[in-house]
């Protein structure tokens, strides 16, 4: 509905004004009587939107899977939205909630952020369209200077998406802060989101969920390329910003490799990421929701993209993830196979710790997923089709029923938990293994213990600081 952008096949006049149109379908035709607000109203019926999946399954170009860990309700969420603004545009995202209402925050962001991205994109497009009212079908471009003009179009397209990502993330956090029925004072969510438009890949990221890509090198061997950086508090720029805002960044003696964000006046909450939606108890002290935006031009060597929450990256390297997805018996089962592999690694590497939730999106860049359905494969029953966000008792990864819970995962830690951690039996702490990962993988758990997955949520006063 006026949000269609394409740089692949549109043939406009060869001047700078036409390039600024970026192939918008709004150019050169009368404005529709239906406003964009009407379009967003229609999108409130999200479950009925075609080509949008947010549960375990597959689409034309992707497969998705999430599995609850052993710490209570599943706080991970995911989405693939094909034909997002046009037929060649796909939106993907993975969201990892934390805090007592983290599962609600993650689902809220999953549903609302794409709509805000559409709205922000439309707003930016209107500004561009105002500068190219004369744009029409036009004459084909001349061959001279095509490369320069293509670069100009790509730069304008990247600028358009950057502005849309920044605006939508800001609007999303603002909505969470003012939400009357959702307490985000010490709850929040990460977000790793991508938009694939033709050969262009636009990415926005906050928190420690991650996106990687499987690509062929010059020897035709499959290699892993990390697309986003885990935004941890110990990264120099992140730590400097937090400390400048009077927040504190340090690691506890019991887990020296996990740097956390703490209030200036209390050893709480201990957030293990530098950027997140929500977490308003720390927003005045350096934790922000501004995404790290990046653009990448895809090539024929690029095979697939994997988005996953930190429950996967805690136990698997980038290279292992690429190998697992590539060697999956079918593309439609790749996400499920990856989550199952992560679950096995959790049991092997951290037998005394509670497995974290895992959510995976696999996007295949050639636009093809197998015809066979995951639901017909062994081990994939109809009972696992929908992810559990209800808090009902479900079967955990070790085959036992886990109690319904809103227990916080290890991303947040309180001062009271430090004492209980030190009082844990020595044989428990001695049994916990470490993860050895290479620096370029930016693992959030390099060489740390996982006993901290047992901690509880810090308790805050009911009185909130003035906004």
TrEMBL record:
<keyword id="KW-0378">Hydrolase</keyword>
<dbReference type="InterPro" id="IPR036457">
    <property type="entry name" value="PPM-type-like_dom_sf"/>
</dbReference>
<dbReference type="GO" id="GO:0046872">
    <property type="term" value="F:metal ion binding"/>
</dbReference>
<protein>
    <recommendedName>
        <fullName>protein-serine/threonine phosphatase</fullName>
        <ecNumber>3.1.3.16</ecNumber>
    </recommendedName>
</protein>
<feature type="compositionally biased region" description="Polar residues">
    <location>
        <begin position="381"/>
        <end position="393"/>
    </location>
</feature>
<keyword id="KW-0479">Metal-binding</keyword>
<keyword id="KW-0904">Protein phosphatase</keyword>
<dbReference type="GO" id="GO:0004722">
    <property type="term" value="F:protein serine/threonine phosphatase activity"/>
</dbReference>
<dbReference type="InterPro" id="IPR015655">
    <property type="entry name" value="PP2C"/>
</dbReference>
<dbReference type="InterPro" id="IPR001932">
    <property type="entry name" value="PPM-type_phosphatase-like_dom"/>
</dbReference>
<keyword id="KW-0460">Magnesium</keyword>
<feature type="domain" description="PPM-type phosphatase">
    <location>
        <begin position="61"/>
        <end position="365"/>
    </location>
</feature>
<feature type="region of interest" description="Disordered">
    <location>
        <begin position="372"/>
        <end position="406"/>
    </location>
</feature>
<comment type="similarity">
    <text>Belongs to the PP2C family.</text>
</comment>
<keyword id="KW-0464">Manganese</keyword>
<dbReference type="Pfam" id="PF00481">
    <property type="entry name" value="PP2C"/>
</dbReference>
